[in-house]
Amino acid sequence: MGRIDPADQRGVHPAHHQAHRGLVHIAFNYVVRGGRRVRKDTKTHQDRWIAIDPATCALIRNYLYETGAVLGAVSIELPDDAYLFSNDPVHARPWNPDWASHQVADAATAAGIGLDIKGLRHYTASQLLAASFDLRNTAARLGHSGGGATTLKHYADPVSEVDRRAAAYLSQLTSGAASRGNARPVG
Questions:
Q1: What's the pLDDT tens digit per position in 114-160?
Q2: What is the distance, to the nearest Å, from the Cα of residue 50 to the centroid of all Cα atoms in its chain?
Q3: In 3D, which of 51, 47, 43, 42 has the Cα closest to residue 19?
Q4: Which residues is 29 bridged to in the sheet?
Q5: Most buried of the four, 64, 146, 169, 170, by CB within 10 Å?
Q6: pTM
Q7: Using DSSP, how many helices (H) and how many strands (E) does the chain show?
């Protein structure tokens, strides 16, 4: 789902998903502190709508339909305040904060690769920026405030393909000057 901060993701309710518009609403997150489950503001203290792709919309719609069908078989409806990401049969509680992290780690181990949610967030930041998505929107997608400073400082890693493109671009800029005899020696 676009690498939303895992803590924010746990706070998503089915009512906060607008499949017809390709959006999901991130209004709060969910943590466990001292053994107590706590619903709190997002890290940036701002709720936001983020775009999700058609495949994710379809996945969520199907999941909600299947969940509703299972509950309907025992004459229970999915409540409006149910959590989308939940292990609870009636979705009354969100995932525990580390549940998704363990699931990703277990799947990565089974596939023989080293991967975790933090790595996915780094990958997302790096790839969006490498694909020329602007810093402000990349940061907002990851739930970072401050205009992208956190995204650049902690999440965006160099991408070798971008470095190759930069080298080719700089070569183009300087090759014209060299052929005209305008190149200056370095040193």
A1: 888 888 888 889 999 999 999 998 988 888 888 788 888 888 888 88
A2: 10
A3: 51
A4: 40
A5: 64
A6: 0.70
A7: 7, 5
